[in-house]
Amino acid sequence: MWQKTKPYLLLLPAVGTIVLLFFGGLFDGLLKSLGYFPAIGETRFELTAYTDLLRSSEFWESLFLTLRVAALSSVIAGVLGAAVAISLYLLNESAKSGTTQVWHRLFQLPLTIPHLVGGYIIVLLFMQSGFLSKILATIGFIDEIPDFPVLVNDPFGWGIILTYAWKEAPFVSLMIYPVLSRIHRSWRDVSRVFGAGNWSFIREIVLPVMLPAWTIATFIVFVFTFSAFEVPFLLGVTYPSMLPVYSYQLYTSGTLADRPEALAVNILLAILTILLGLVVYYFSKRWNVLKGWD
Amino acid sequence: MTKTRPFLKSILFTLLFILIGLPFIPLILSSVSFGWQWPNILPESFSFRAWEYVLLGSSGTWQAVSVSLLIAFIVTAVNILLAVPAANALVRYPLRGKWLLEAMLFAPIVIPPFVAVMGIHLTFLRLGLTETVFGVVLAHLSPTLPYMVRAVMISYNTLSIDWEDQARMLGAGSLSRFRHVVLPHLLPGIAAGASLSILISLSQYLITFIIGSGQVVTLPILLFPFISGGDPAIASAYSLLFAGIAILTLIGMDAALKKYYQNKKAGAENG
Protein backbone atom coordinates (compact mmCIF):
# COMPACT_ATOMS: atom_id res chain seq x y z
CA MET A 1 0.00 0.00 0.00
CA TRP A 2 2.75 2.42 1.04
CA GLN A 3 4.78 1.59 -2.05
CA LYS A 4 1.78 2.36 -4.23
CA THR A 5 0.80 5.66 -2.68
CA LYS A 6 4.32 6.91 -2.00
CA PRO A 7 5.00 8.51 -5.42
CA TYR A 8 1.63 10.29 -5.29
CA LEU A 9 2.46 11.65 -1.84
CA LEU A 10 5.83 12.81 -3.16
CA LEU A 11 4.06 14.65 -5.98
CA LEU A 12 1.34 16.11 -3.80
CA PRO A 13 3.11 19.29 -2.59
CA ALA A 14 4.23 20.40 -6.06
CA VAL A 15 1.05 19.45 -7.89
CA GLY A 16 -1.05 20.89 -5.06
CA THR A 17 0.78 24.21 -5.29
CA ILE A 18 0.26 24.43 -9.06
CA VAL A 19 -3.39 23.36 -8.80
CA LEU A 20 -4.15 25.88 -6.08
CA LEU A 21 -2.21 28.88 -7.35
CA PHE A 22 -2.19 28.33 -11.10
CA PHE A 23 -5.26 26.33 -12.06
CA GLY A 24 -7.18 27.97 -9.20
CA GLY A 25 -6.29 31.32 -10.71
CA LEU A 26 -7.31 30.22 -14.21
CA PHE A 27 -10.62 28.88 -12.89
CA ASP A 28 -11.24 31.98 -10.78
CA GLY A 29 -10.61 34.09 -13.88
CA LEU A 30 -12.88 31.89 -16.01
CA LEU A 31 -15.77 32.25 -13.55
CA LYS A 32 -15.36 36.01 -13.38
CA SER A 33 -15.10 36.28 -17.17
CA LEU A 34 -18.51 34.61 -17.28
CA GLY A 35 -19.85 37.28 -14.94
CA TYR A 36 -20.05 34.98 -11.90
CA PHE A 37 -18.93 37.12 -8.97
CA PRO A 38 -20.83 36.44 -5.72
CA ALA A 39 -18.97 39.20 -3.82
CA ILE A 40 -20.82 41.87 -5.82
CA GLY A 41 -24.03 39.84 -6.04
CA GLU A 42 -23.53 38.42 -9.54
CA THR A 43 -24.42 34.74 -9.50
CA ARG A 44 -25.59 34.25 -13.09
CA PHE A 45 -23.45 32.93 -15.90
CA GLU A 46 -23.48 34.89 -19.12
CA LEU A 47 -21.38 35.14 -22.24
CA THR A 48 -21.70 38.92 -22.74
CA ALA A 49 -18.00 39.55 -22.12
CA TYR A 50 -17.08 37.10 -24.87
CA THR A 51 -19.68 38.23 -27.39
CA ASP A 52 -18.78 41.91 -26.81
CA LEU A 53 -15.14 41.06 -27.25
CA LEU A 54 -15.56 39.05 -30.44
CA ARG A 55 -17.66 41.87 -31.90
CA SER A 56 -15.18 44.63 -31.09
CA SER A 57 -12.68 45.59 -33.77
CA GLU A 58 -10.14 46.41 -31.06
CA PHE A 59 -9.85 42.76 -30.09
CA TRP A 60 -9.29 41.56 -33.65
CA GLU A 61 -6.74 44.29 -34.35
CA SER A 62 -4.96 43.35 -31.15
CA LEU A 63 -4.94 39.66 -32.09
CA PHE A 64 -3.66 40.45 -35.58
CA LEU A 65 -0.89 42.67 -34.19
CA THR A 66 0.08 39.96 -31.69
CA LEU A 67 0.33 37.33 -34.44
CA ARG A 68 2.35 39.62 -36.69
CA VAL A 69 4.81 40.66 -33.97
CA ALA A 70 5.24 37.07 -32.74
CA ALA A 71 5.78 35.78 -36.29
CA LEU A 72 8.33 38.42 -37.28
CA SER A 73 10.30 38.28 -34.02
CA SER A 74 10.51 34.50 -34.04
CA VAL A 75 11.63 34.35 -37.68
CA ILE A 76 14.29 37.06 -37.21
CA ALA A 77 15.48 35.44 -33.95
CA GLY A 78 15.56 32.10 -35.79
CA VAL A 79 17.71 33.41 -38.65
CA LEU A 80 20.12 35.24 -36.31
CA GLY A 81 20.34 32.25 -33.96
CA ALA A 82 21.03 29.87 -36.84
CA ALA A 83 23.77 32.16 -38.18
CA VAL A 84 25.44 32.25 -34.77
CA ALA A 85 25.14 28.48 -34.22
CA ILE A 86 26.49 27.56 -37.68
CA SER A 87 29.42 29.97 -37.35
CA LEU A 88 30.23 28.57 -33.91
CA TYR A 89 29.99 25.02 -35.25
CA LEU A 90 32.37 25.72 -38.12
CA LEU A 91 34.76 27.49 -35.75
CA ASN A 92 34.68 24.53 -33.37
CA GLU A 93 35.67 22.27 -36.26
CA SER A 94 38.79 24.23 -36.97
CA ALA A 95 39.81 25.54 -33.55
CA LYS A 96 40.51 24.27 -30.06
CA SER A 97 37.34 23.60 -28.09
CA GLY A 98 38.27 26.11 -25.37
CA THR A 99 37.91 29.14 -27.62
CA THR A 100 34.48 28.04 -28.86
CA GLN A 101 33.33 27.76 -25.24
CA VAL A 102 34.22 31.41 -24.63
CA TRP A 103 32.45 32.49 -27.83
CA HIS A 104 29.42 30.48 -26.82
CA ARG A 105 29.22 32.11 -23.39
CA LEU A 106 29.52 35.60 -24.88
CA PHE A 107 26.69 35.02 -27.33
CA GLN A 108 24.39 33.86 -24.52
CA LEU A 109 24.59 37.21 -22.75
CA PRO A 110 21.25 38.62 -24.03
CA LEU A 111 19.43 35.62 -22.53
CA THR A 112 20.37 36.70 -19.01
CA ILE A 113 19.37 40.35 -19.50
CA PRO A 114 15.96 41.07 -17.89
CA HIS A 115 13.25 41.85 -20.45
CA LEU A 116 12.65 45.42 -19.30
CA VAL A 117 16.37 46.17 -19.63
CA GLY A 118 16.42 44.53 -23.07
CA GLY A 119 13.52 46.76 -24.10
CA TYR A 120 15.30 49.87 -22.85
CA ILE A 121 18.46 48.93 -24.75
CA ILE A 122 16.38 48.87 -27.95
CA VAL A 123 14.84 52.25 -27.03
CA LEU A 124 18.27 53.86 -26.69
CA LEU A 125 19.50 52.31 -29.95
CA PHE A 126 16.50 52.74 -32.22
CA MET A 127 14.47 55.74 -31.07
CA GLN A 128 14.33 58.64 -33.53
CA SER A 129 17.02 60.56 -31.66
CA GLY A 130 18.76 57.36 -30.55
CA PHE A 131 22.28 56.05 -30.96
CA LEU A 132 21.88 54.73 -34.52
CA SER A 133 20.22 57.96 -35.62
CA LYS A 134 23.15 59.90 -34.12
CA ILE A 135 25.64 57.71 -36.00
CA LEU A 136 23.76 58.10 -39.30
CA ALA A 137 23.57 61.87 -38.80
CA THR A 138 27.29 62.14 -38.05
CA ILE A 139 28.26 60.28 -41.21
CA GLY A 140 25.85 62.52 -43.12
CA PHE A 141 23.24 59.92 -43.99
CA ILE A 142 20.33 61.84 -42.44
CA ASP A 143 19.93 65.57 -41.75
CA GLU A 144 17.20 65.84 -39.15
CA ILE A 145 15.73 63.69 -36.40
CA PRO A 146 12.48 63.00 -38.33
CA ASP A 147 14.53 61.48 -41.18
CA PHE A 148 15.08 58.42 -38.98
CA PRO A 149 12.11 56.02 -39.14
CA VAL A 150 9.86 55.62 -36.09
CA LEU A 151 10.90 52.20 -34.78
CA VAL A 152 10.05 52.56 -31.09
CA ASN A 153 6.49 53.00 -29.79
CA ASP A 154 5.34 52.55 -33.39
CA PRO A 155 1.98 51.06 -34.39
CA PHE A 156 3.63 48.25 -36.40
CA GLY A 157 5.53 46.95 -33.36
CA TRP A 158 9.11 47.13 -34.71
CA GLY A 159 10.53 47.96 -31.28
CA ILE A 160 8.97 44.84 -29.78
CA ILE A 161 10.11 42.72 -32.73
CA LEU A 162 13.71 43.98 -32.46
CA THR A 163 13.83 43.35 -28.71
CA TYR A 164 12.62 39.77 -28.96
CA ALA A 165 14.75 39.02 -32.02
CA TRP A 166 17.78 40.18 -30.05
CA LYS A 167 16.90 38.46 -26.78
CA GLU A 168 15.75 35.14 -28.24
CA ALA A 169 18.39 34.60 -30.95
CA PRO A 170 20.79 33.09 -28.34
CA PHE A 171 17.99 30.77 -27.26
CA VAL A 172 17.60 29.44 -30.80
CA SER A 173 21.35 28.94 -31.16
CA LEU A 174 21.45 27.22 -27.75
CA MET A 175 18.73 24.80 -28.89
CA ILE A 176 20.29 23.87 -32.26
CA TYR A 177 23.98 23.81 -31.35
CA PRO A 178 23.83 20.36 -29.68
CA VAL A 179 22.23 18.96 -32.84
CA LEU A 180 24.98 20.42 -35.01
CA SER A 181 27.70 19.05 -32.75
CA ARG A 182 26.37 15.55 -33.46
CA ILE A 183 27.28 15.90 -37.15
CA HIS A 184 30.15 13.50 -37.52
CA ARG A 185 33.54 14.91 -38.45
CA SER A 186 33.90 12.23 -41.10
CA TRP A 187 30.84 13.54 -42.95
CA ARG A 188 32.78 16.72 -43.53
CA ASP A 189 35.73 14.77 -44.89
CA VAL A 190 33.50 12.70 -47.15
CA SER A 191 31.82 15.86 -48.43
CA ARG A 192 35.23 17.32 -49.20
CA VAL A 193 36.24 14.18 -51.09
CA PHE A 194 33.19 14.73 -53.27
CA GLY A 195 34.31 18.30 -53.83
CA ALA A 196 31.88 20.17 -51.59
CA GLY A 197 33.00 23.58 -50.37
CA ASN A 198 31.90 25.31 -47.18
CA TRP A 199 28.68 26.63 -48.66
CA SER A 200 27.51 23.40 -50.20
CA PHE A 201 28.40 21.54 -46.99
CA ILE A 202 26.18 23.95 -45.06
CA ARG A 203 23.39 23.72 -47.63
CA GLU A 204 23.42 19.97 -48.14
CA ILE A 205 24.23 18.71 -44.64
CA VAL A 206 24.12 21.33 -41.88
CA LEU A 207 20.79 22.94 -42.80
CA PRO A 208 18.81 19.68 -43.25
CA VAL A 209 20.21 18.26 -39.99
CA MET A 210 19.28 21.30 -37.92
CA LEU A 211 15.89 21.98 -39.55
CA PRO A 212 13.63 20.08 -37.07
CA ALA A 213 15.30 21.55 -33.97
CA TRP A 214 15.36 24.99 -35.59
CA THR A 215 11.65 24.87 -36.38
CA ILE A 216 10.78 23.86 -32.82
CA ALA A 217 13.05 26.51 -31.26
CA THR A 218 11.62 29.22 -33.50
CA PHE A 219 8.10 28.12 -32.70
CA ILE A 220 8.82 28.21 -28.95
CA VAL A 221 9.96 31.81 -29.40
CA PHE A 222 6.69 32.46 -31.26
CA VAL A 223 4.56 31.08 -28.40
CA PHE A 224 6.60 32.98 -25.85
CA THR A 225 6.37 36.32 -27.69
CA PHE A 226 2.67 35.73 -28.20
CA SER A 227 1.94 35.97 -24.48
CA ALA A 228 4.63 38.37 -23.25
CA PHE A 229 3.69 41.56 -21.47
CA GLU A 230 6.66 43.64 -20.31
CA VAL A 231 8.27 44.52 -23.64
CA PRO A 232 5.03 45.37 -25.52
CA PHE A 233 3.94 47.45 -22.52
CA LEU A 234 7.16 49.46 -22.71
CA LEU A 235 7.66 49.63 -26.48
CA GLY A 236 4.16 49.47 -27.92
CA VAL A 237 1.48 52.09 -28.52
CA THR A 238 -1.84 52.37 -26.65
CA TYR A 239 -3.79 51.45 -29.74
CA PRO A 240 -3.57 48.85 -31.17
CA SER A 241 -1.88 46.96 -28.35
CA MET A 242 -0.80 43.33 -28.08
CA LEU A 243 -3.26 40.95 -26.37
CA PRO A 244 -1.65 40.82 -22.89
CA VAL A 245 -1.37 44.63 -22.84
CA TYR A 246 -4.95 44.97 -24.13
CA SER A 247 -6.13 42.76 -21.26
CA TYR A 248 -4.16 44.82 -18.76
CA GLN A 249 -5.60 48.08 -20.14
CA LEU A 250 -9.12 46.69 -19.76
CA TYR A 251 -8.38 45.36 -16.28
CA THR A 252 -7.02 48.64 -14.96
CA SER A 253 -9.42 50.94 -16.83
CA GLY A 254 -11.27 51.54 -13.59
CA THR A 255 -14.76 50.40 -14.53
CA LEU A 256 -15.82 47.08 -13.07
CA ALA A 257 -17.72 46.28 -16.29
CA ASP A 258 -14.45 45.97 -18.21
CA ARG A 259 -12.99 43.38 -15.86
CA PRO A 260 -14.93 40.35 -17.17
CA GLU A 261 -13.83 41.42 -20.65
CA ALA A 262 -10.17 41.60 -19.56
CA LEU A 263 -10.47 38.12 -18.04
CA ALA A 264 -12.17 36.88 -21.22
CA VAL A 265 -9.16 38.13 -23.24
CA ASN A 266 -6.96 36.15 -20.84
CA ILE A 267 -8.98 32.97 -21.23
CA LEU A 268 -8.86 33.23 -25.04
CA LEU A 269 -5.12 33.90 -24.81
CA ALA A 270 -4.69 30.81 -22.59
CA ILE A 271 -6.65 28.65 -25.05
CA LEU A 272 -4.57 29.91 -27.99
CA THR A 273 -1.28 29.24 -26.17
CA ILE A 274 -2.44 25.73 -25.19
CA LEU A 275 -3.21 24.98 -28.86
CA LEU A 276 0.17 26.37 -29.96
CA GLY A 277 1.88 24.41 -27.16
CA LEU A 278 0.25 21.17 -28.33
CA VAL A 279 1.54 21.79 -31.86
CA VAL A 280 5.10 22.22 -30.52
CA TYR A 281 4.77 19.09 -28.39
CA TYR A 282 3.38 16.98 -31.23
CA PHE A 283 6.10 17.89 -33.71
CA SER A 284 8.96 17.71 -31.22
CA LYS A 285 7.89 14.15 -30.30
CA ARG A 286 7.38 13.20 -33.91
CA TRP A 287 10.72 14.55 -35.12
CA ASN A 288 12.49 13.34 -31.98
CA VAL A 289 13.97 16.80 -31.59
CA LEU A 290 14.47 16.71 -27.86
CA LYS A 291 16.12 13.31 -27.82
CA GLY A 292 19.77 13.40 -26.91
CA TRP A 293 20.03 16.17 -24.34
CA ASP A 294 17.48 15.12 -21.81
CA MET B 1 40.74 25.15 -43.70
CA THR B 2 43.43 27.72 -43.04
CA LYS B 3 41.72 29.98 -45.57
CA THR B 4 38.28 29.76 -44.03
CA ARG B 5 39.28 30.49 -40.45
CA PRO B 6 40.05 34.22 -40.76
CA PHE B 7 36.89 34.63 -42.83
CA LEU B 8 34.85 32.77 -40.21
CA LYS B 9 36.42 34.72 -37.37
CA SER B 10 35.56 38.01 -39.04
CA ILE B 11 31.93 36.91 -39.47
CA LEU B 12 31.80 35.93 -35.79
CA PHE B 13 33.43 39.17 -34.68
CA THR B 14 30.91 41.17 -36.71
CA LEU B 15 28.00 39.21 -35.25
CA LEU B 16 29.46 39.53 -31.76
CA PHE B 17 29.90 43.27 -32.13
CA ILE B 18 26.41 43.87 -33.53
CA LEU B 19 24.60 41.53 -31.11
CA ILE B 20 26.59 41.87 -27.90
CA GLY B 21 28.83 44.95 -28.04
CA LEU B 22 26.85 47.65 -29.83
CA PRO B 23 23.64 47.38 -27.75
CA PHE B 24 25.48 48.16 -24.52
CA ILE B 25 27.44 51.17 -25.78
CA PRO B 26 24.58 53.74 -25.62
CA LEU B 27 23.42 52.27 -22.29
CA ILE B 28 26.83 52.74 -20.69
CA LEU B 29 27.43 56.16 -22.30
CA SER B 30 24.01 57.42 -21.31
CA SER B 31 24.48 56.37 -17.68
CA VAL B 32 27.51 58.65 -17.33
CA SER B 33 26.30 61.46 -19.56
CA PHE B 34 25.43 64.98 -18.54
CA GLY B 35 23.35 66.16 -21.45
CA TRP B 36 23.61 64.29 -24.74
CA GLN B 37 22.33 66.27 -27.73
CA TRP B 38 21.51 64.85 -31.15
CA PRO B 39 23.58 64.29 -33.37
CA ASN B 40 26.67 63.93 -31.17
CA ILE B 41 27.91 60.35 -30.99
CA LEU B 42 29.45 61.03 -27.58
CA PRO B 43 27.82 62.95 -24.71
CA GLU B 44 29.01 66.56 -24.37
CA SER B 45 30.06 66.12 -20.78
CA PHE B 46 30.35 63.24 -18.39
CA SER B 47 29.24 62.96 -14.79
CA PHE B 48 28.52 60.26 -12.25
CA ARG B 49 25.38 62.12 -11.11
CA ALA B 50 23.06 59.25 -12.13
CA TRP B 51 25.21 56.59 -10.47
CA GLU B 52 25.40 58.70 -7.31
CA TYR B 53 21.61 58.98 -7.27
CA VAL B 54 21.13 55.26 -7.87
CA LEU B 55 23.80 53.94 -5.51
CA LEU B 56 24.05 56.57 -2.77
CA GLY B 57 20.99 58.80 -2.81
CA SER B 58 17.78 58.22 -0.92
CA SER B 59 16.38 56.48 -4.01
CA GLY B 60 15.46 53.24 -2.27
CA THR B 61 17.70 51.20 -4.59
CA TRP B 62 19.19 48.93 -1.96
CA GLN B 63 15.81 48.44 -0.34
CA ALA B 64 14.45 47.31 -3.72
CA VAL B 65 17.48 45.10 -4.40
CA SER B 66 17.09 43.35 -1.05
CA VAL B 67 13.33 42.90 -1.49
CA SER B 68 13.93 41.45 -5.00
CA LEU B 69 16.62 39.07 -3.79
CA LEU B 70 14.62 38.10 -0.70
CA ILE B 71 11.63 37.16 -2.86
CA ALA B 72 13.81 35.35 -5.41
CA PHE B 73 15.58 33.29 -2.75
CA ILE B 74 12.42 32.34 -0.81
CA VAL B 75 10.73 31.35 -4.09
CA THR B 76 13.76 29.26 -5.06
CA ALA B 77 14.02 27.55 -1.66
CA VAL B 78 10.32 26.63 -1.75
CA ASN B 79 10.77 25.40 -5.33
CA ILE B 80 13.61 23.08 -4.31
CA LEU B 81 11.52 21.61 -1.48
CA LEU B 82 8.59 21.02 -3.83
CA ALA B 83 10.53 19.90 -6.89
CA VAL B 84 12.94 17.29 -5.50
CA PRO B 85 10.26 14.84 -4.26
CA ALA B 86 8.10 15.53 -7.31
CA ALA B 87 10.95 14.86 -9.74
CA ASN B 88 11.83 11.71 -7.81
CA ALA B 89 8.28 10.39 -8.20
CA LEU B 90 8.02 11.32 -11.89
CA VAL B 91 11.32 9.74 -12.90
CA ARG B 92 11.59 6.65 -10.72
CA TYR B 93 8.11 5.35 -10.02
CA PRO B 94 5.51 3.83 -12.29
CA LEU B 95 2.60 6.26 -12.15
CA ARG B 96 -0.94 6.19 -13.41
CA GLY B 97 -1.87 9.30 -15.33
CA LYS B 98 1.76 10.40 -15.47
CA TRP B 99 1.22 12.45 -18.63
CA LEU B 100 -1.57 14.38 -16.90
CA LEU B 101 0.56 15.12 -13.83
CA GLU B 102 3.43 16.26 -16.05
CA ALA B 103 1.10 18.36 -18.19
CA MET B 104 -0.24 20.07 -15.05
CA LEU B 105 3.22 20.76 -13.63
CA PHE B 106 4.55 22.14 -16.92
CA ALA B 107 1.41 24.08 -17.90
CA PRO B 108 2.73 27.45 -16.59
CA ILE B 109 5.55 27.26 -19.16
CA VAL B 110 2.97 27.46 -21.96
CA ILE B 111 0.01 29.33 -20.47
CA PRO B 112 1.18 32.81 -19.42
CA PRO B 113 1.13 32.93 -15.58
CA PHE B 114 -0.24 36.48 -15.49
CA VAL B 115 -3.55 35.00 -16.69
CA ALA B 116 -3.78 33.00 -13.45
CA VAL B 117 -2.56 35.92 -11.35
CA MET B 118 -5.12 38.34 -12.77
CA GLY B 119 -7.80 35.72 -12.17
CA ILE B 120 -6.81 35.15 -8.55
CA HIS B 121 -6.17 38.83 -7.79
CA LEU B 122 -9.56 39.60 -6.17
CA THR B 123 -9.38 36.42 -4.08
CA PHE B 124 -5.92 37.45 -2.86
CA LEU B 125 -7.35 40.88 -2.08
CA ARG B 126 -10.06 39.35 0.09
CA LEU B 127 -7.53 37.13 1.87
CA GLY B 128 -5.30 40.14 2.59
CA LEU B 129 -2.44 38.72 0.49
CA THR B 130 -2.07 41.72 -1.82
CA GLU B 131 0.56 44.34 -0.96
CA THR B 132 2.55 41.69 0.94
CA VAL B 133 5.87 40.02 0.18
CA PHE B 134 4.22 36.68 1.01
CA GLY B 135 1.55 37.25 -1.64
CA VAL B 136 4.20 38.13 -4.24
CA VAL B 137 6.17 35.00 -3.32
CA LEU B 138 3.02 32.90 -3.89
CA ALA B 139 2.48 34.61 -7.25
CA HIS B 140 6.10 33.92 -8.34
CA LEU B 141 5.84 30.18 -7.60
CA SER B 142 3.91 29.03 -10.65
CA PRO B 143 6.10 30.68 -13.30
CA THR B 144 9.27 29.26 -11.72
CA LEU B 145 8.40 25.80 -10.33
CA PRO B 146 8.12 23.99 -13.72
CA TYR B 147 11.72 24.88 -14.62
CA MET B 148 12.98 23.61 -11.27
CA VAL B 149 11.07 20.31 -11.66
CA ARG B 150 12.42 19.90 -15.21
CA ALA B 151 16.02 20.55 -14.13
CA VAL B 152 15.87 18.13 -11.17
CA MET B 153 14.19 15.48 -13.36
CA ILE B 154 17.15 15.60 -15.76
CA SER B 155 19.48 14.88 -12.81
CA TYR B 156 17.31 12.04 -11.52
CA ASN B 157 17.37 10.45 -14.97
CA THR B 158 21.08 9.75 -14.65
CA LEU B 159 20.98 8.57 -11.02
CA SER B 160 21.03 4.80 -10.79
CA ILE B 161 18.99 3.03 -8.09
CA ASP B 162 21.96 0.67 -7.69
CA TRP B 163 24.06 3.34 -6.02
CA GLU B 164 21.44 3.83 -3.35
CA ASP B 165 21.11 0.06 -2.92
CA GLN B 166 24.85 -0.20 -2.41
CA ALA B 167 24.71 2.48 0.27
CA ARG B 168 21.81 0.65 1.90
CA MET B 169 23.79 -2.60 1.97
CA LEU B 170 26.62 -0.72 3.62
CA GLY B 171 24.13 0.25 6.30
CA ALA B 172 23.22 3.82 5.38
CA GLY B 173 19.80 4.99 6.59
CA SER B 174 17.42 6.79 4.27
CA LEU B 175 18.51 10.23 5.48
CA SER B 176 22.22 9.63 5.08
CA ARG B 177 21.58 7.90 1.72
CA PHE B 178 19.89 11.06 0.57
CA ARG B 179 22.62 13.31 1.94
CA HIS B 180 25.63 11.40 0.71
CA VAL B 181 24.42 9.68 -2.45
CA VAL B 182 21.37 11.40 -3.92
CA LEU B 183 21.94 15.05 -3.07
CA PRO B 184 25.50 15.37 -4.46
CA HIS B 185 24.26 13.87 -7.70
CA LEU B 186 21.24 16.17 -7.91
CA LEU B 187 23.17 19.31 -7.10
CA PRO B 188 24.04 20.44 -10.66
CA GLY B 189 20.38 20.05 -11.63
CA ILE B 190 19.22 21.91 -8.53
CA ALA B 191 21.74 24.67 -9.25
CA ALA B 192 20.58 24.98 -12.86
CA GLY B 193 16.95 25.09 -11.73
CA ALA B 194 17.79 27.61 -9.02
CA SER B 195 19.53 29.90 -11.51
CA LEU B 196 16.48 29.87 -13.77
CA SER B 197 14.13 30.31 -10.84
CA ILE B 198 16.08 33.31 -9.51
CA LEU B 199 16.38 34.86 -12.95
CA ILE B 200 12.66 34.50 -13.71
CA SER B 201 11.62 35.78 -10.28
CA LEU B 202 13.96 38.78 -10.52
CA SER B 203 12.58 39.93 -13.86
CA GLN B 204 8.83 39.68 -13.11
CA TYR B 205 7.12 43.01 -13.51
CA LEU B 206 3.40 42.50 -14.17
CA ILE B 207 2.77 39.76 -11.60
CA THR B 208 4.59 41.67 -8.88
CA PHE B 209 2.74 44.83 -9.81
CA ILE B 210 -0.72 43.22 -9.73
CA ILE B 211 -0.25 41.40 -6.41
CA GLY B 212 2.12 43.89 -4.76
CA SER B 213 -0.11 46.80 -5.91
CA GLY B 214 2.92 49.07 -6.00
CA GLN B 215 3.58 48.52 -2.28
CA VAL B 216 6.10 45.68 -2.74
CA VAL B 217 8.86 47.55 -4.55
CA THR B 218 11.21 45.21 -6.40
CA LEU B 219 13.88 46.34 -8.84
CA PRO B 220 11.65 46.09 -11.97
CA ILE B 221 8.90 48.09 -10.23
CA LEU B 222 11.41 50.78 -9.27
CA LEU B 223 12.95 50.75 -12.75
CA PHE B 224 9.79 51.02 -14.85
CA PRO B 225 8.88 54.72 -14.36
CA PHE B 226 12.43 55.71 -15.31
CA ILE B 227 12.66 53.69 -18.52
CA SER B 228 9.18 54.67 -19.70
CA GLY B 229 10.01 58.34 -20.08
CA GLY B 230 12.07 59.37 -17.05
CA ASP B 231 15.62 60.69 -16.82
CA PRO B 232 17.62 58.62 -19.37
CA ALA B 233 20.85 58.75 -17.36
CA ILE B 234 19.18 57.34 -14.24
CA ALA B 235 17.21 54.81 -16.30
CA SER B 236 20.46 53.60 -17.90
CA ALA B 237 22.26 53.34 -14.57
CA TYR B 238 19.35 51.34 -13.10
CA SER B 239 19.24 49.09 -16.17
CA LEU B 240 22.95 48.32 -15.89
CA LEU B 241 22.61 47.64 -12.16
CA PHE B 242 19.63 45.34 -12.77
CA ALA B 243 21.35 43.40 -15.56
CA GLY B 244 24.52 43.24 -13.46
CA ILE B 245 22.70 41.74 -10.48
CA ALA B 246 21.06 39.10 -12.70
CA ILE B 247 24.39 38.13 -14.29
CA LEU B 248 26.28 38.18 -10.96
CA THR B 249 23.70 35.87 -9.38
CA LEU B 250 24.23 33.36 -12.19
CA ILE B 251 28.03 33.58 -11.99
CA GLY B 252 27.89 33.27 -8.19
CA MET B 253 25.74 30.15 -8.47
CA ASP B 254 28.19 28.60 -10.94
CA ALA B 255 31.19 29.44 -8.76
CA ALA B 256 29.55 28.05 -5.60
CA LEU B 257 28.87 24.77 -7.38
CA LYS B 258 32.45 24.50 -8.64
CA LYS B 259 33.76 25.21 -5.15
CA TYR B 260 31.50 22.54 -3.67
CA TYR B 261 32.91 19.89 -6.01
CA GLN B 262 36.47 21.05 -5.44
CA ASN B 263 36.03 20.74 -1.66
CA LYS B 264 34.46 17.34 -2.14
CA LYS B 265 37.30 16.18 -4.31
CA ALA B 266 39.90 17.52 -1.88
CA GLY B 267 38.04 15.88 1.02
CA ALA B 268 37.96 12.55 -0.78
CA GLU B 269 41.67 12.72 -1.55
CA ASN B 270 42.69 13.65 1.98
CA GLY B 271 40.34 11.42 3.84
Identify the CATH class of the domain at 58-218 in chain B.
Answer: Mainly Alpha
The biggest beta sheet of chain B is recorded as: none
Please tell me the CATH architecture of chain A by its name. Answer: Orthogonal Bundle
**In total, how many domains does the architecture of chain A comprise?**
1
How is this fold's topology laid out?
The complex is a heterodimer of chains A (294) and B (271).
Chain A: H1 2-33, H2 48-55, H3 57-94, H4 97-107, H5 109-112, H6 115-126, H7 131-138, H8 158-180, H9 185-193, H10 198-226, H11 230-235, H12 243-251, H13 258-286
Chain B: H1 4-21, H2 24-31, H3 49-55, H4 61-92, H5 98-110, H6 113-126, H7 133-157, H8 161-169, H9 174-202, H10 206-212, H11 219-227, H12 232-270
Helix pairs in contact in B: 2-12, 3-12, 4-7, 4-9, 5-7, 6-10, 7-9, 7-10, 8-9, 9-12, 11-12
Structure report:
The complex is a heterodimer of chains A (294) and B (271). With 294 residues, chain A is mostly helical. Chain A has one domain (64-287): MetI-like fold (Orthogonal Bundle), CATH 1.10.3720.10. In chain A, 74% of the residues lie in helices and 0% in strands. Chain A is built from 13 helices and no strands. In chain A, 45% of the residues are buried. Chain B has a domain at 58-218: Orthogonal Bundle (MetI-like fold). Chain B is 77% helix and 0% strand. In chain B, helix 3 packs across helix 12. The longest helix of chain B is centred in the C-terminal third of the chain and has 39 residues, at 232-270.
